[in-house]
Every structure is written in structure tokens, then in C-alpha cells.
Design brief:
The protein is of the alpha/beta class. The protein has 3 domains: about 200 residues, Rossmann fold, CATH 3.40.50; about 80 residues; about 90 residues, Arc Repressor Mutant, subunit A, CATH 1.10.10.10. The chain contains 17 helices and 9 strands. The protein has a 5-stranded parallel sheet, sandwiched between helices. A two-stranded antiparallel ribbon has the order 3-4. A two-stranded antiparallel ribbon has the order 8-9. Strand 3 and strand 4 form a beta hairpin. It binds adenosine-5'-triphosphate (ATP) and magnesium ion (MG). Adenosine-5'-triphosphate binds next to helix 2 and helix 11.
């Protein structure tokens, strides 16, 4: 029986649920000339999946749209190449012919080859790489060519730029936002969705005095509706012959609120349901909560190597702060925490917390007693299992930090 939950890729088809409003808005922007939408959301919440769904929807409505992932790119030229290739895949051979026009607009040459699947692969010659201004010009030229083509054909082309914080970073941070604005501004036949996963950085882009002030409409992708998500998980599992009451709700309670973390747990719990149940003589169907616990424990164990490496790279104060956070019963800069966990002065703890936040190991969470939570629920489990016993504290790996009363 194949697992009905998928992780590690943006999900489509039956693996995708919900997000009707976000998808509709994305699709609409991708079909509206001159429209600009900024999509922000925390990591692993499901942004790329919404983008792909929105693109599919725009295409079904007769539009042309594609996604360009700016993440991991090292230069504007690499992004220009990604746009070229994504456009070639979405717009077809016709567009590759148009591309030769580009050669005239930019100082340099474009090479056309064929990839393994036999589709044309187009890129700027690598000689561009040495000159950053030619680099920006190359990206501008590709986007201008797309706008010109859309205009000529009296249609709109939708472009989703994913991980756009990487692009503004490459273009030079805050001044780079002006460069990006300059690149996109004149395109009346392109609809852009700019998506990214550093909500504070991205939201700042449209602050007063910044490049995108009043230039973008905003779409926040938050956690999935828990009641819907829980039902969907139960239903997907049941259709694959695993009926365990309360499975979805238990996954959300343990791994929430990030969509990926929850789906990952549902996947592991489903796998646990199928595993031979050696420890029990009489086979009894496990409840949803038991399956979620087993799945959680398995995921903590599976990721033990990277977690250990991360832990060993942390200064001692940071380790202590994480231990206290894994228990999560008191505010970290309080006298009680200092006594219970041997933490230093509030200044020392404060800077440890800032460093952990900058490294995205923890997040501010005002509704929890400790004031912070782990970004990764499985790292929390690893700390509980492997680092708390050093303090003589033994808790189940699935222990949850305390939410503030009221
Ligand atoms: N609408 C959805 N329905 C079901 N599962 C989803 C949905 N959206 C996301 N997921 C789950 O979350 C995982 C991550 O989704 P996705 O890559 O879209 O998130 P993201 O916000 O783009 O993440 P990142 O910050 O890593 O780029 C998917 O692989 C899938 O397991
Ligand atoms: Mg993504």
C-alpha cells in the first residue's frame, strides 16, 4: 500500500488539500497584466504548493504561467537562465525562437542546447558571469522579452518568482529592492507573484520609504485550518485502509503548525500502522494518538545525525537555553529558569536566544510560557530524548511545552 502522504516536494493533485482562497488569488494575479502580489509565509507552510496550484489553475483557464525558483541561485544571471528555461518549458518552441531576439538586446550570446528529455535548454553564455551589470541586464532583457511577446500576442504571461528574498539579496539587499522594482515596473503584460519565506524581511520591502511601498498586494499563507487538515489526514489514511480515530488531530498537536511538519508526521504514523507489530502478541489496532506518538519517535530517531551535529556546534549557553525550552515550563530570562536550568544572567540568555533566533532554530511565541518555541518539532523531541537526561529530567519524547494560560 503506497503512503498517501508526501513530503519533500511541493504537492499536487490528491496530495494537495485546501487553500482555495490563496490559490484563486494567485491564479487571478497570474492572469492580470501589471498585477503584483507578494506572498509571504513561514518556512514549510505550503507556499510553493499554492504557487503551483495557482499556475495550474491559470493554465486551465487558458492563461500562460510558470514558476521560477530563485532559491540557491548565486547570481542574477543564474536566475535569468532559470527564467529562460522555465519560459521555454511553459511557452514552447515558439518562445525559443523569440529568444534569439534577445541576443541583439544584450551584449553577449545565448546558447541553445537540448536537455535529457529532448526539450530545448537555453542559457546565456557563461562569460556574462564576470560582469554584474551585464548580469542584471540579462535578467532585465529576458523579462522585457517576455513582456514584449505577451503584448504582441495580446495575452498575459504570469510569472511566480519563488524564494524572492534570494533575488533581492543577490541584487544587493535593500538597494537591490529598487533594482528589482526597476526590472519589473514597466511590464504591463506580465502578472507577477513574488513569494518568499522570510516574512519580516519581505514585509519590510513594502514599508514606507522602501522600493515596493504601495506597489504590491499582500497574501499571507498561514497554517492550514486545523479542523480541515485533521479530517483530511484521517480521510486519506482511511482510504488507504488505515482507520485510526483522532490521527489527524494528534499529528497537528504534536507537529503543528507548519504544514510540512504535520504531513511528515502523518506519513510516519501511516508507515508505523503498516509495520509489523512485533511487541504485541495479540494484534490490536493502534489509536490515532498512539500512531502519531510512534511516528514522532521514529522521525526523531531518523534525524538523529543532523540534530546531533547541530547540537554539538552550539555554545553551552545556547544548549542550556534549548534544554529549558524543550521543557518549556518557565520564561527563559526569569530567576526560576536561572535556578532550574543553570542559565546565566538575563543578558547572557538574551543574546543566546537572539543567536538561536537568527539561526532559525527557535521562534518568538508570545502564547507559550517560555516565550519561544522550537522551529522544528523533531529537534525539540531530540533534545528531550538526548539532552534533558543530562539534567536529570526524563520526559516522553512527545512532551509539549506549556501554552500560557488564558
Ligand atoms: N495544500 C497542501 N495539502 C497537503 N499537504 C501540503 C499542502 N501544502 C504543503 N503541504 C505539505 O508541506 C510540504 C511543504 O510544502 P511546500 O514546499 O509547498 O511549502 P513551502 O512553504 O514552499 O516550504 P519552503 O519554506 O521549504 O519553501 C509538502 O511537501 C507537503 O508535504
Ligand atoms: Mg517553497
Amino acid at each position: 500500500m503506497s503512503n498517501p502522504f508526501r513530503i519533500g516536494v511541493a504537492v499536487r493533485g490528491v496530495f494537495f488539500t485546501d487553500r482555495a482562497d490563496e490559490t484563486a488569488r494567485t491564479a487571478a494575479i497570474l492572469q492580470e497584466g501589471g498585477a503584483r502580489l507578494l506572498m509571504v509565509g513561514e518556512r514549510r507552510v505550503g507556499k510553493t504548493s499554492v504557487l503551483l496550484r495557482g499556475i495550474e489553475r491559470a493554465q486551465r483557464a487558458g492563461g500562460q504561467a510558470f514558476l521560477v525558483d530563485c532559491g540557491t541561485a548565486g547570481s542574477a544571471l543564474e536566475i535569468a537562465n532559470r527564467v529562460l528555461n522555465a519560459a521555454t518549458r511553459a511557452l514552447g518552441r515558439d518562445w525559443s525562437a523569440t529568444v534569439s531576439d534577445l541576443t541583439r538586446r544584450v551584449r553577449g550570446r545565448i546558447q541553445v542546447s537540448t536537455d535529457q528529455a529532448g526539450s530545448p535548454a537555453i542559457s546565456f553564455e557563461p562569460t556574462f558571469a564576470s560582469d554584474p551589470t551585464a548580469d542584471h541586464a540579462a535578467l532585465g532583457a529576458v523579462l522585457d522579452a517576455l513582456d514584449a511577446r505577451a503584448k504582441r500576442e495580446r495575452r498575459i504571461i504570469g510569472i511566480a518568482l519563488d524564494e524572492v528574498q534570494r533575488l533581492t539579496g543577490i541584487l544587493g539587499g535593500e538597494p537591490g529592492e529598487w533594482v528589482l522594482r526597476g526590472l519589473l515596473q514597466h511590464h504591463q503584460h506580465l502578472g507577477y507573484v513574488l513569494a518568499g519565506s522570510e516574512p519580516t524581511v519581505l514585509s519590510a520591502m513594502q514599508g514606507r520609504g522602501r522600493a515596493f511601498y504601495q506597489q504590491l498586494s499582500l497574501l499571507t499563507v498561514g497554517p492550514m485550518d486545523p479542523a480541515h487538515f485533521a479530517r483530511w489526514i484521517d480521510d486519506r489514511a482511511a482510504r488507504a485502509n488505515v482507520t485510526a480515530s483522532g490521527l489527524g488531530a494528534a499529528c497537528i498537536a504534536l507537529a503543528g503548525p507548519r504544514t510540512r511538519d504535520v504531513t511528515q508526521l502523518a506519513r510516519a504514523a501511516f508507515a508505523a500502522a503498516l509495520a509489523p507489530n512485533a511487541s504485541r502478541g495479540a494484534r490490536r489496532a493502534l489509536t490515532g494518538a498512539e500512531l502519531a506518538d510512534t511516528g514522532f519517535s521514529d522521525l526523531v530517531a531518523e534525524q538523529s545525525d543532523p540534530f546531533r551535529a547541530l547540537w554539538e556546534g552550539l555554545a553551552r549557553t545556547r544548549q542550556q537555553a534549548l534544554r529549558a525550552l524543550a521543557v518549556g515550563d518557565v520564561g527563559l530570562t526569569t530567576e526560576a529558569a536561572r535556578r532550574a536550568y543553570g542559565l546565566g544572567s538575563s543578558g547572557v540568555v538574551g543574546s543566546a536566544l537572539t543567536a538561536l533566533r537568527d539561526a532559525r532554530v527557535i521562534l518568538r511565541a508570545a502564547d507559550y510560557s517560555a516565550g519561544y518555541v522550537f522551529d522544528n518539532p523533531y529537534l525539540r523531541g531530540w533534545v528531550i530524548r538526548n539532552a534533558l537526561p543530562d539534567l536529570g529530567i526524563v520526559l516522553p519524547v512527545t512532551h509539549l511545552p506549556r501554552a500560557r494560560a488564558g
